[in-house]
TrEMBL record:
Name of the protein: MOB1B kinase
Keywords: Kinase, Metal-binding, Transferase, Zinc
GO MF, any single term: kinase activity
Positions contributing to Zn(2+) binding: 27, 32, 109, 114
SUPFAM superfamilies registered for this protein in UniProt: Mob1/phocein (SSF101152)
Gene: Mob1b
Classification via InterPro entries: MOB_kinase_act_fam, MOB_kinase_act_sf
Amino acid sequence: NRWFKCFTAVDFFNQINMLYGTITDFCTEESCPVMSAGPKYEYHWADGTNIKKPIKCSAPKYIDYLMTWVQDQLDDETLFPSKIGVPFPKNFMSVAKTILKRLFRVYAHIYHQHFDPVIQLQEEAHLNTSFKHFIFFVQEFNLIDRRELAPLQELIEKLTSKDR
């Protein structure tokens, strides 16, 4: 569990936060009134604490809620203990999987809604490398249900194919 916290949760959170930060001028309340990944996938926000029932919100608002929620999870010593010898809670993998599932949604949103700006900013290689690393990791340890990956399934197959 310690390797997961140190390597994965924090690393992927920082990477997607940075990548999204470069396209915030393009992802606005007006351009993205709903958090989506193409026309078939719409995401509603609920954190189970402050917002118990899923709400429809803009992509920037959803991503703001998400990044705040993930940071709160990472800072919670009962979920992600930083002291050696302190055990991780029994629900650790469940929380970690939820974090990764939700971070995936930001990748999916960027690819579906903002790929042109990514190309304009010449960040395509960085986005692809970051996403490929993310996907290899979540697939290796079966951390995101295959159905959740559907919005980017074609891209995932291209990035993870053996002859690439």
